[in-house]
Structure formats: C-alpha cells, structure tokens
Amino acid sequence: MNYCGYSKFDAANGPGVRVSLFVSGCTLHCKGCFNPESWDFGAGKPFDADALAKLLRDSDDDSIAGLSILGGDPFERENIPEVERIVDAYRGKFGKEKTIWIWTGRKYEHLMNDPSAKSLIEKIDVLVDGPFIESRKVTEKGKWFGSTNQRVIEIAGM
User: Any idea which UniProt keywords this protein has (predicted)?
Assistant: First the structure.
C-alpha cells in the first residue's frame, strides 16, 4: 500500500492533535473530492516498516490524541490488509490510550457485510462513512465530515 500524505500534528481530522495518514487509492472518485491526487493506488510512497516506525514514534507524544486514517480510501480491498496491520501495531503500542478514526466513502452497513472490512472496523474507535456529495458540502469548521450525508459512527465496545 502507498500513502500520499502524512501529518505529524493534525488538528483538522478528529478531536485533539492527531497523527494523520492519507492512504493512496480510491475507486469511488467522488465529484469535488478534496484529495483527487489520492485516487491513484501508485501515488506517493510505499508504507513500509520505516513509515510504520515513524508513525508509532510520532504518536508517542503526550500531546497526540490518536491516529486518523484517510485517503484515498482505507477500505479499498487492496488497502484493508495494510491498514489493519497499522491499526494492530497502534493498538499494540497504545492500547485504548489513543483513539483511531478512519474515513471512508463507503457506508458502514455495506462494510459490515465484508468480513475483512468488519474485522478492521471492530478494532477502531470511530468510522466516518459515506461518499462525499458536493451539493451537500459542509463549509463550517469543526465538522469531521465533508458533506452532510456522511456520519460519524462511534464503534460499540471501543
């Protein structure tokens, strides 16, 4: 899996200051997407062992509230295994001390019918779901979604 963006101190994608990872690859191609350069699965750099070590090291700061994984789309079939490996490593290091949020253009109900997607969802704290719809774009600050059809879903048991 490649990634096309990374932020060590991100205050725009989830509560508090977070480490944010933007994975490459999305087949949804939502009109008006804020990050169309992320659609290409080959964009950016490979997410390798060094990138994972940096993500964990950067998160090991008391000011970091958690990890946000965006895209592209982390729930593209090609991305799920690597995203789950990242989530497992993050949980292994931080347990429930820091939260994990993931954004996807897919609906929660659809993802829960896919065993690999369901396995990943069950390991995170919050899923922001739904395709971006340009005509429903959110313009005010402080929202965790880009259009009003999208939902912020707290995952039970997390």
Answer: 4Fe-4S, Iron, Iron-sulfur, Metal-binding, Oxidoreductase, S-adenosyl-L-methionine
Residue numbers of the domain that contains 122: 2-154
Look at the chain and report how many structural domains it folds into: 1
> What is Dmax (Cα atoms) for the chain?
41
Average pLDDT over the chain, rounded to whole?
92
Strands 45-46 and 2-10: antiparallel
Residues 126/153, Cβ–Cβ less than 8 Å: yes
Q: Considering the entire predicted model, what is its pTM?
A: 0.92
Q: Any idea what the CATH number is for the domain that residue 61 is in?
A: 3.20.20.70
State how beta strands 151-154 and 126-129 pair: antiparallel
